[in-house]
Amino acid sequence: MDLAVKDLKRHLGRFLTTIIGVGLLFGTVLAMNGIYRGVVFEGISLIESINPDLWVVERFRGGPFSEQSTMAEDFHYSVAAVPGVAQASPFIVYPVEREIRGKSTRFSIIGYDVFGGLGGPKKLTAGRGIKRAHYEAVAHKKLGLSLGEKIPLGLHQYTIVGLTDDITSPDGEPVVFLSLPDAQEVLFQRDNETVRNQRERLRRSLARNALNSQETDRLISELQTETHTINAVLVKLAPGADRLKVARHIEDWLYFSVYTSQEEINLMLRGRLAKARMQLLIFRIILLIVSMVILTLVIYTFTMEKIRSIAIMKLMGAANWVIVHLVLEQSLLLTVTSFIIGWLIIHYTQGFFPRKIFLTPLDEAITFTLALVGGLIASGLGIWQALKTQPALALGGH
Amino acid sequence: MKTLEIIGLGKVFGSGRLEVRALENINMSVSPGELVALMGPSGSGKTTLLLCISLILEPTVGTVVFDGETIFQDGWTGLDVRRLRREKIGFVFQTANLIPFLTARENVLLPMDLIGVKGEAARKRADELLEYMEVADRADYLPALLSGGEQQRVSIARALANRPKLILADEPTASLDTTRGKKVMEMLKKIAREHQTAVITVTHDARMIEGFDVVYHLKDGQLNHQGAI
After folding, report:
1. Residue of A nearest to B112 (CA)
2. Which InterPro entries does this one have (chain A) (predicted)?
């Protein structure tokens, strides 16, 4: 006679509400695992996806993701001339918030050399890559755009020619790929009034320096904001080239900082992502402990409610293994079914989360093992209580 | 062969100034089919004696021989007392003490399950016992849906499940009204006569033990044989 199952069947409503409650708790723990992994995954996905041999950035800066890095675009020619460099491509990335389909939307723009340069989308889910120098874009499918759709960025309309899904900004925002000049234009484009005001200020400043109007007009166009800037140069090394030697050469002779992709990832993990990771990790641990404590209490309560029945069974001569089996089976049923419910909940709802929930089998296995350990500890306590229960309790005496 | 023989049994709780002599020099024997009543005021040691007889509480001194086997002789003799309880003793409690999450039939099946009797044979036996106790129509009910008298009769059916040599009943009528109480006692008498099962009943109520073979009176832990009612 399976006493554990019979007990649970008789209290089916309570059993179901308990496993749904504990299951939701496990779902939250698994979601927290996924959020933690998701923050790290998204934080470094851009670096991992682009993955050049070297990132050349502004000197003494941890850019282009961990902090701002600005350099003149034409420096990529200098980098390309370094011995051991097979290809050097300009790269720019920045976040924007623009109206898409009438809704204010945050995303990041990546500008790259669309004619064979590094830094473009690796995998397209639909359409094609950018083939023209201007007014074409490849967008992340999270933006909900369709092929052929036009989006306004700055002064121009950009046609979506391709869709991708393998890359997000370090903040988890979708990205839009543009050609480098387009990306620079969108970044530096100002409205006419701002441009007029800026020119007027310059004109007044130059006039104060006793320049005549002809000289002033000539200088104004020369003194406009430099728009041919980039955030990094992406480097592909020639076969057999020594990565360290090339990096040292660029640092010593061109006065830039150079990182490998792994170093870029480390900069992100130790810098921009560090506090968010630690915050989530601590919350994740607390949540796991809370879940285990609640599970332990639930199982212990289930056992203690049966203590008189256990005393009756002991009085009737039930062997210890009968009692142990009852408590242990019930504990395992509660733990396993709760975990399955939690697992199902998070697997079927992860798509509704605004940021990536990155669930890994390892995290799930660890959470399940810890839940099982919690269940076994609770069973142990329950079994200990059950085994020390005096059969006399059933008689109401002694 | 006697079902139960108790010789010079004593039970002391605590020691020194806190020592309480709950039972002193108890001698009694019970034959198959014999109906024995244990009476006495509260605190006289009835439950303690029942616990000693049911091999739950270890006596301090004395000898307990159960169905020809010496179980206790100034210490447990090493026999598996739980197995003896499973196989040879049936319990009827003050309240029915049915397992609340098992139906009436499952409650009767449980003792058989504990000794490995399962399947159709066990089910048939359970149904026969419920029929015998006149609660067959309540077989699939949970204890909470049975009246007090029905619950007590199911508990007697459970006590009988493994054809015990001895039934120990601890005030089985205490929670019942007089009519239902008498019916339960009639059932116990019927069992003793028809199955040759020895029955030891603890009770306060002298009206309930009419027709019993032997009545023992316990006072301050000492047993006084009072003969038949």
Report:
1. A1
2. ABC-4/HrtB_transporter (IPR051125), ABC3_permease_C (IPR003838), MacB_PCD (IPR025857)
Bridge partner list, A179: A112
Q: Write down the pTM of the prediction.
A: 0.76
Predicted local confidence at residue B228, as pLDDT: 54
Pairwise CA distance, residues B173 & B179, whole Å: 10
Give the pLDDT mean for B14-36. Answer: 88
Considering only CB atoms, B57 lies closest to which of A318, A396, A398, namely A398
CA distance A280 to chain B (A): 43
- A90 beta partners: A233
**In the predicted structure, residue B76 carries a pLDDT above the cut 90:** no
Low-confidence residues in chain A, pLDDT < 70: 210, 224-226, 395-398
What's the pLDDT tens digit per position in A367-395? Answer: 999 888 888 888 888 888 888 888 877 76
Quick one: how far is CA A272 from the chain centroid? Answer: 12
Instruction: State the pLDDT at residue A131.
Output: 92
For B90, which residue in chain A has the nearest alpha carbon?
A316
Domain spanning B4-14+21-100+150-226: CATH 2.60.40.10: no
Calculate mean pLDDT across residues B24-44: 88
Inform me whether the pLDDT recorded for B126 exceeds 70: yes
Contact list in B for residue A312 (CB cut-off 8 A) is 93, 97, 99
Distance, CA of A307 to CA of A323 (rounded, Å): 10
Q: What is the pLDDT of residues B149-159, one digit of tens each?
A: 889 889 888 98
Which ipTM score applies to this complex? 0.83
